[in-house]
């Protein structure tokens, strides 16, 4: 098995290649569909039907956006966390979905990327719902690890034979230091997830927005020391900014 790292629209894409099949370690963004298909056909010289499974680690635009379209074009199955309801359920879910799309567009602008279609369905149609300790369908050398915190349903995938774990957005790198992502909905669960990944002692930790990193004791401690202890979410940040604005207006009055 070989893992290919592909530069995506606003994140890294990881494609695991086997002699008879392919595994996409995350659902990428809607803008990455063509990139993924071209890589399979042109770089690997394989039919796109060799893609057998697409993991969706969580529902953000750069991790779930390409899943449905890729399934339609390749026949691959979608694998994601077993959950009782959709992440973007209800009126609040609609608002959060739109906000996340705006944030993805903002990130693309910051990176100097051209405008692309990022729209995707806010409710994922899962072929295989998985839980902690399960193996991936068709790929029993990959184990599912539940690693919530960033959202309530984040999963990582671990290959013990290769000593490699893909953690998606569980951690990001800023100024050459690993830190917690934004948002963090569940701070306590987040800390447990960081500890779970550290205890794997994996040689390669693959990040969605960086690539492979070394995750040692020093890196773990820095994340735990700097990670939020209360939820840091879109709405909470908006409320803080609104309060600051009101105070400023009252002070002027």
Automatic annotation (TrEMBL):
What lineage, starting at the top, does this entry show?
Answer: Bacteria, Pseudomonadati, Pseudomonadota, Gammaproteobacteria, Vibrionales
Short name of one Pfam family? Lactamase_B
Which residue stretches, if any, does this entry annotate as coiled coil?
A: none
Task: Give the InterPro entries listed for this entry.
Answer: Metallo-B-lactamas, NDM-1-like, RibonucZ/Hydroxyglut_hydro
**Source organism's superkingdom?**
Bacteria
What protein name applies here? MBL fold metallo-hydrolase
Metallo-beta-lactamase domain mapped to chain residues: 10-209
